[in-house]
Structures are given as C-alpha cells and as structure tokens.
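Shape matters. Shown next:

___
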Amino acid sequence: MKTKLIFGTIALGLLLLTSFGFMNKPEGETHINWISMEEAAELSMTKPKKVIVDVYTDWCGWCKKMDVDAYEKASVVAYINENFYAVKFNAEQKEDITLGDQTFKYVANGRRGYHELAALMLNNRLSYPHTVFFDETLQKIAAIPGYRPEKELFAMLNYFKNDVYKTDPNLDAYIANFGKSGK
C-alpha cells in the first residue's frame, strides 16, 4: 500500500510537471538561427537574402544586454529568421575566415586583438556592439554602432529589409518615427 502511494505521488508529480511545462512553452521561434559568415555567403548565392551581423566581444556588457533586450525578443527573432541570414560575429575570434579568395585572420594587439573581418566591417571603428547590414549580394549597406533595444532594432530591421535606406538616408529619424503614421 505504501509503495503504491509513493509511485502514485511520483506519477502525479511527473504528470503535473509535464503538463505545466507544455502550457508555458512559448509560441513560435525562440532563438535566432545564427550562422557563420561563410554560411551566409554560401546561402546568399543560392537563395539571396539580406544579412545582419551582430558584432560583439565576450567582455562587452552592452552586447550581452542587447542580446537580452533585443535579440531574444519574439518579434525580433521571427522577423530576422524570416527575412535575413543572421551572423553573430565575435570581433576577437582567433579562427580564420575565408570569403571568396580572401582569408581574414586574427591580429594580436596588446592584451586583446581583433579580427581583420571585424575591422573591415566596422571601418576600423572597433566599438561594440555593432550591427552591420549587407544586401543580397553581400555588399555592405551600413555599420551601426551601439546598443539598440527591441523597438529600435526592429525599426532598423524594417528600414533595411524594405530598402527604405535607398530613398530615406536618415535612419535616426526613421527609428524615431517608426510605428507612427502607418510606418
């Protein structure tokens, strides 16, 4: 009798845990499909899409905050996964990256170094976080420095995805007015 009671309690507990786990499961995608620069370049050749690159470092506190405040939000995750190839690029990574016939390497510089590809993407302005956008042919559109919360990042995604940058060069004004008057 005592054994049946113990097993019954355990079974009931497992059933409740499983049920609540499924009830609280978030709807839709919960993570951005991050890929490497090489994968983004390869995929762009067969199925063209714009590319967003989150340039970060392991020690950057604002980079970690932007991950939580923007890159982990459901609206941003879904929009990026549907419309962009997403690359999370450590600006201090030591692995070589080969794109086409060019190989980019890590450059030691004091206690910390930098990756040549990060320097190229950021126009040698090595500040973090940085968000870089490329068009479908992997031509750089813009490198935008600084932390951006969910609403600002979403406005930036919309601005570049919909080619607004081609007719309206003022990204800051676009972000400030995003969501107002039908945008």
Summary: The CA atoms of residues 10 and 91 lie 49 Å apart. The radius of gyration is 21 Å. Helices lie at 2-23, 37-46, 61-71, 74-83, 116-121, 150-161, 171-177.
